[in-house]
Write a structure and sequence with these properties.
100 residues; Alpha-Beta Plaits; four-stranded antiparallel sheet; two-stranded antiparallel ribbon; disordered N terminus
Length: 100
């Protein structure tokens, strides 16, 4: 939501925009998990629904490495919650990969 209005006591004709009022800054974090297998069509549809969760920015699979990486808002979600959502979507999520 964007709030545009006049500030109290502002001179006539001076517009003040409060575009960040009420919003906390997002801290993005990427976590990569090993996968037991590649997702099928049903799992990919469920993952598409995960991307609509507030805080999930990107979900990306690497078929060669058999990994899934998720970019998310760390101020709203934790890596364990992300792994749980992937598992509920039918993805065989295993241990996280240590990124160098």
């Amino acid at each position: 939501m964007l709030y545009i209005g006049f500030a109290p006591g502002a001179r006539a004709g001076k517009l003040q925009i409060h575009h960040t009022e009420g919003f906390d800054p997002m801290t993005y974090l990427e976590v990569v998990f090993n996968c037991g297998g590649l997702p099928g069509e049903a799992e990919l549809k469920a993952v598409d629904a995960i991307r609509e969760v507030y805080g999930i920015q990107r979900v990306q699979f690497d078929s060669k490495q058999r990994t899934v990486s998720v970019l998310f808002d760390a101020s709203r979600l934790k890596p364990d919650a992300v792994a749980k959502m992937l598992r509920q979507a039918g993805i065989d999520v295993r241990e996280p990969v240590a990124l160098a």
